[in-house]
Amino acid sequence: MFLRVAIILQTLAVFAAPITAGLLLSSPSGRALHSVAAYGVFTVALLHLVAAILVWRPGGGSPRPILYALVFFGLTLAQIALGISHVKTLHVPLGVLMFGVSVLELSRVSAGRRAQVDAAA
C-alpha cells in the first residue's frame, strides 16, 4: 500500500511539472513554481525509492521495484541537471518519458493489487 501511494504521488508530481513549465513561459512567477515542482518530483522519487526498499526488505519479495525506483531516481537527477543547464531539447522529452514510465508502473502496481484481491476472493 505504501509503495502504491508513493507511485501515485510520483505520477502526480511528474504531471504537475509540465503545467508549471507552461507557467514558466507565461508568467514572471513561473520559474519559482517550476522549481517547486522539480523539488517535489525529486522528493517523491526519493520517497518512492525508500518505500520500495522498505517493502522489499521485511517481506523478502522481488527487488524489481527497487530497480525501477532507482532508475527513476537517476532519471530525475538527469532531468534536474538538464533543466539547470537549460538543455530543453533533452529536458522536455525526458520529462515526457518519465511521466509515461510512471503511469506504466502505476498501472502495473494497480493490476498486481487487483490480482491479489481477486485471488483472495
Low-confidence stretches: none
Secondary-structure content class: mainly alpha
What integer value in Å does the Rg equal?
A: 16 Å
Annotation, overall tally of beta strands: 0
Give the helices and strands as they follow along the chain.
HHHH
What's the average pLDDT? 87
Distance between the termini: 18 Å
> What proportion strand?
under 5%
C-alpha geometry: elongated
Count of helix runs: 4
Share of helical residues? over 70%
Largest pleated sheet: none
Topology:
Blueprint lengths: L1 H25 L3 H30 L4 H21 L3 H33 L1
Helix pairs in contact: 1-2, 1-4, 2-3, 3-4
Structural key phrases:
single chain, 121 residues, mainly alpha
Notes on the protein architecture:
- The protein has 121 residues and is mainly alpha-helical.
- 90% of the residues lie in helices and 0% in strands.
- The chain has helices spanning 2-26, 30-59, 64-84, 88-120.
- Helix 1 (2-26) runs antiparallel to helix 2 (30-59).
- The chain is elongated.
- It starts with a helix and ends with a helix.
